[in-house]
Write a structure and sequence with these properties.
31% of the residues lie in helices and 22% in strands. By secondary structure, the protein is an alpha+beta fold. The protein folds into 5 domains: 197 residues, Heat Shock Protein 90; 135 residues, no CATH class; 131 residues, no CATH class; 117 residues, no CATH class; 125 residues, no CATH class. A 7-stranded mixed beta sheet has the order 9-8-7-10-2-1-11. Strands 27, 28, 29, 30, 31 and 32 form a 6-stranded mixed beta sheet that branches. Strands 12-13-16-14-15 form a 5-stranded mixed beta sheet.
Amino acid sequence: MILTSAPQDEAILSNVGEIGEFRIRNSAKAFSILSSGLYANKIRAIIRELSCNAVDSHIAAGKGDTPFDVHLPTQLEPWFSIRDYGTGLDDEQIAGKHIPAVVDDNGNVLVPARRDGGIYNTYFESTKTGSNDFIGALGLGSKSPFSYTNNFTVTAVKDGRRGIYSAFINDMGVPSIVLMMDEQSTEPNGVEVKFSVNGYNDFEKFKSESRHVYIHFKLRPVIHGVSNFKFYEKEYREKDILPGIHYTGGYNSVAVMGNIEYPIEVPQSDTVLGELRSLLDCGLELHFDIGELDFQASREGLSYIPDTVQAIKRKLAALNTQLTIHLAADANKIKNSWERALFLSRKRDDKLFRNAAWQYAVDTTFPLANTSAGVFSLKHFNMHEKDLAKKYNIEMKVFVKHNYQMSCKNQTPDNEYSPKLNAAGQHDITKYWGIYISETSYFVLNDTKPGGLQRTRYHWLNDKDVKKRAGHQDKVFVVEPVDKKLPIKFAAFLKAISNPPAIQVKKVSDLMEKPRAGGAARAKNVTILKLERKDANGGYHNRRNAAEMVWRDAGKADSFDTTSKHYYLPIVGHQLTETAKVKRVGDLNDWMKDSGLPAFATITIHGVRKADIDWVKTQKNWVNLEDYITATLTNVDPTVIARIGAKSLDSYKQLQYNARVASLITDPTSPYLAVIEKYRGITPLKFNEFAVSRLVHYFAPTTKFDGASAMKEVKKECEAIYNRYPVLGIVKYDGYTDVSAQLAQYINLVDRSMKLDREDETHS
C-alpha cells in the first residue's frame, strides 16, 4: 500500500550549528515494542498479519484466485501455520546479504561474518509501498509471531530451492534468524510460517479469532487441522445501499479495507462530520479501496489523518444523498397505499432511514402520512357509526386480543363532541370508530348466521398463526350489516380506508370453528390449567410461598402429548375442591419439590374443572395427582431409601468411598471396609424430612416409609465406625494432601489390635 503522510510544516533554518538526527537504537526494548507491544489482541494480530502477507504474495505472483493454507492447532497437532503459494523468498530476502568476515594477515577475525539488508528480517522494510494492490506496507506483520512466541520456523521456497529458517529471540533479547537447512525442492514457490501453540485454551482462541479475521476475506483460505470449521457469515439488513456500503442495523460502524475491518472512531466527529455523524450510530459497513485510509501500525485501528477523515466523510455524504432515492425506489414498488404506509412506518422506526422516510412523505405528499413539524406519523380514519350505516350498511363489533392474554376484550366506540352547544345547552355526541393503519388491524366480514362474533373470538384465542405473533395486540373489527335484508358494501368500506392488504381482511366462514362437545372432538374443547408461580413481570415479589401460586391456561387437552403422563387435580373455578386432602395447592407443590423424591421432581400440577373431569378420567395418560402421591409413598423404591440414608454420609468425609484407602485395607472383614462398600456409588438425595412428613401425613398415614429412620440407621453405622476408629473423627482433609496411606495404616492397626484382643479372650 502506498503510504501517505500528513502535511508537515517546513522548518526554516538560519544561523544554526551542526544538525543531529533522531535515531532508533537497535535494542531489545525497541524490538519488543515493535513485535509485541503494538498488539492488544496478539493471536488475532498474528493471523491477520500473516494472512495479509499471504494474500499480497499471491497477488504479486498473479495467483489472486488461489487460496492459501491455514493449519489451526488441535490436541494431536498443536501448531499454527500459514502457507502461501506466491512469489516465495530467497536466502538474501529472508536473512540479508552475506558479508564475509574481515581478517588480518595472521588470520585473526577483526569483524565477524554477518548478514545485512534482508527484507524479511528488517523492521519497516517492505516491497509493497509502491502499489495500492497490496495490503501491507510497514514491514512489521512478518514479525508478529514474536508477540506470542520466542521462536518460529520460516520455510521459504523459491525457484527450486527450499530454505528452512529458525527465527528466535537471542540472549540479548534481539530477534534473530538463522538458516537451518538449504536444499533443492520441487515444491511450488511460497512461504510457510509455523510455531507451537500453548495449550487447549489457545487452541480455541486461534479458531475463534480466525473466524473473526477471515469474515471479510474475498477469497478465504483452506483450513486444515480443525474439522468442520465454519467461517462467520455477517448478516445485513441491506447490502449495497451504495456499492460497498452495507447496513447491519447495529450501533457501531466499521470500515473495511484490504480484507481487514477497522472500527470507525473519528475524533471530534461532531465537528468534522457535522450532521453526517449520526449515520455512524446506525451500524454501517463502509468498504474502501486500499490506500484510501491510513491505519495504525498495529492495524487494529485507523489513523485519522486528514485524508482518512475526508474519505469517510465522502462515503457518508454519498450515502446520505442516496438514502432517500433508495427508499423511494422500494416504496414506489408497493402499489397498495395501506402497505406502502406500513413500509414507511417501519422505515421511520429505523434509525438509518428515519429522515429519508419523512423526506419521501414530504416530496410525494403521501396522503396517509402526517409530516408537520418535521415529524412523520401515519394518519388514521375516524369512521362515524351513522356514516358507516348510511354509506355502507355496516355496523361494527370490535375486540382487542393481546398475545399474552387468554381473553378478548370488547371495545366501544369513541365519543366526538360538537364544538357548539345545542338548544339544551349540551354538546352533541357522535359515536365513531378510530381505525389505525397498522399490521395488527383486522377486518372480518360476518358472512355466516348469528354467532359470527363468537366464532371470530374463538379463532383469535386458538389459532396458531395468531399465537405466533408474540407481543402483538390485534384489534379486530367484525363487520355486519345493519339491515340484514340489504347487501353490505364491504369493498367500498375497505377502499375508504385505503384497502388493507388481503392478509388483514377475512371472512367468518374461513375462521376456526369451535368444535361441538362429545365424541373424538371432546378433547379439543377441554381446557387445561397449570399451576405456576407468579413472577416479577406480573408485579409480584419473588418470595417463595404458597400465596404466589396461580392457575394459568395450558391449552386444550388435544395439544398434550398422548404418550406422556400428566397429573391433575379437580378444581372449581381457580380453587381446589372441598374434598382435596391439601387445601392450599401451593403448599402441596412446595412439599413435592422440596421432598427430594425423584418421583415428584419434574411433575407439573394441572387443574381440570368439574365439567371436564369425566372425560379426563377416561384418559389413561391423565393421572389423579393425589392417587399418584399415595401410591408412591406406599411403595417407595428401596434404592430411594438407600439414597436418603446416604445423605448422612456427607458429614463424615472419611467414610466416603476412597479407592486407594480401600485397596490398602488388609482385613477383608474390616467394618470400615464394609460400610464404605455398602454406600459405594450411591448418590445421596437432598431429602427434606419436613416436606416428606407432610406428604405422608396427608396421603399415606399408614405407610411404613420413614426417611428419617433411614438416615438414623446410617448415622448409627457411622457412629459405630468412629467409636471403633476414633482418630478418624479428628482427621481433616485439606483437599491437597493425600493421607490415604496413613489412614489405611491406622485402620489396619486398629483391626489387627481388635482381632488380637478377641483371640486373647478366646484363649483365656
